[in-house]
Amino acid sequence: MTVHATDLSLVPTDQLQPLDTIEGFQVRPGFFNTFGATIIPGGVNFTIQSHGATSCELLLFHRMAEEPFAALRFPENYKIGFVYSMIVFGLDIEEFEYAYRLDGPYDEQKGLRFDKTKILLDPYARAVTGQSRWGVTNCCEHGYRARVVRNNFDWGLEKQPQIPMEDLIIYETHVRGFTKDTSSGVCCPGTFLGLNDKIPYLKELGINAVELMPVFEFDEMRDVRVVDDHLLIDYWGYNSVCFFAPNTSYASSIEYNREGRELKELIKALHDNGIDVILDVVFNHTAEGNELGPSFCFKGFDNNIYYMLTPDGYYYNFSGCGNTLNCNHPVVQQLILDCLRYWVTDYRVDGFRFDLASILGRNEDGSPMNQPPLLRSLAFDPILGTVKLIAEAWDAGGLYQVGSFPSWRRWAEWNGKYRDDMRRFLKGDGGLAEAAAQRMLGSPDLYDPASRGLSASVNFITCHDGFTLNDLYSYNEKHNEANGWNNTDGSNDNNSWNCGVEGETDNPEVLALRLKMMRNACAVLMCSRGTPMFLAGDEFGDTRFGNNNPYCQDNEISWLDWSLLETNQELFGFFRYMIAFRKKHRVIRKDLDAGSFGFPNTSIHGLTPWTPDTSPESRTVCVMFAGFDAENQKEDVVYVAVNPYWRTLELILPELPEGIRWHIAVNTGDPAHTTFPEGQMPMADGSVLLGGRSVIVFVAE
């Protein structure tokens, strides 16, 4: 029976028969709707697309070989529209790697860069070869190659935590840096398995979501440099080589043809312990760079489709990394949607944080769009229906959308204004009382609860960009000399304070003040409405020695020093307490039913209740969260008083109904007891002394 390509989907795959022979291989037209390389009974289906190519060759390599052992040119009848598809029979996936060569017009001014000499990586590749050994140079000018992956991981009855956004406590970390230092004590430092070994620690800390910095395949050696005898590489990984492939150098062992297995085991283990997994994804640019960069994938498939180009064929650079992905072209939209669906279905990922997400809302000419089709598609896609979507709502081209990112009530945002306002407020800057109160209440001035809900704001004071929490109160200035750019890289607007001494010190008064400042930041973050996020290591005072941009530092500057966990047990205990406190008091996270005390859900106060002082001289803010917790059948009232001023002030507390008293849960100004367990909280009279540079958290009992 002769079966035409258009009828192929109707034929059982185990009955497919070869129709042609090319270069000694039996072949037939493939599945045109299935992009990438897919195992089928008896062979492998290869499908790619290119709108401008005039011909396409499939290249087959023996593992690690320089030259292909076969080059199979797609016949004309193996192409429908702009899609090439071929089934090659008799291939053993463990014995080959693959890539493509495409021919077509070359005209840089028109954005056409077809070159039949270039070896091109499949945009839908599930694994990239030659990348499994960290720190080993793979020359992308010779092309990256792909490997076919078996998708046979058994998820069993695995159930994702499905934690509501407002209940998350996000812990941002770098897979390698989290355990690479010998102080981590894990069996396989710097790997997915190493992170897996730390799950009991994460459980003890109390976080319920990890946000992993890029785990898509990237080439850490792409921009390798030597500065002062130190090797500097692309350590952070914000330069994607392939969107569908996991970074194989994060695996503790070689995973030929089962790439991603260790990452899946990590995700499953985290889920088993009630922890969500959020991936930091980079769809705003790729590692191909500008017109001077290599051509190993998208440039060779359809440069003028995949990238935003100026009228004369140069690359728009809204990413600050050389190129900008043309996210709202239908082809690129589909690629991104397919990619995210893949990570959700095959890896069971719970959410995505989109790097420089404002780029995803730019038109093909770079202009911002009112209703970006990509963002809308992601918001309403059924596979992504319960996935968290978090935008870094700005880009390197000057587009800043914090509070105005297109959301459809689905997108949350990294609240950069929370970071900036709270950093300034907590170190004692004046004129910020009103802004600080808004930030602590979920930034309703930015996110209208009626249209955005209560889960739009991801609150953070620290993240991978900028100072750690320890460094925020140890340095007035950045110290990025080790990066090799004469300290010109990284932000100059850190809103930090060194507490009187720049950098490391043995001065006990300075150290005590720094500890109090870190506690203040943690207390305020955990008592703010919105989703809190903090940087891994902040809970035990990790330092980067004043480097606020260690993107290239694969060494002790970036690796967590776990010995500090023992040194700073007090700080760790405070973080653990505040996380548990936030979990216990649902009233902080959401509006509850009206309580019998007659208090509104949220309110702002000053040193005198119900009279907030937002004058430029004011440096004190109090906020109250109140309601009836039906789940626990009790009134839940939390009162947070923040005094960044350096003097002790008298605080008058709101009156409570008869028989109810204020109790102190947290007092960072009390050097003997900063936290109090339930049942041991001291009672507070109608007025208390609010110490200088301190936070007191009260509960009504």
TrEMBL record:
Q: Which SMART domains match?
A: Aamy (SM00642)
- Top-rank taxon of the source lineage equals Bacteria
Under the heading InterPro entries, the entry gives:
GH13_cat_dom, Glyco_hydro_13_N, Glycogen_debranch_GlgX
Q: Which residues form the Glycosyl hydrolase family 13 catalytic domain?
A: 172-582
Question: Pfam families from the xrefs?
Answer: Alpha-amylase, CBM_48
Protein name as it appears in the record? Glycogen debranching protein GlgX
Name the source organism.
Faecalicatena faecalis
Give the organism's phylogenetic lineage: Bacteria, Bacillati, Bacillota, Clostridia, Lachnospirales
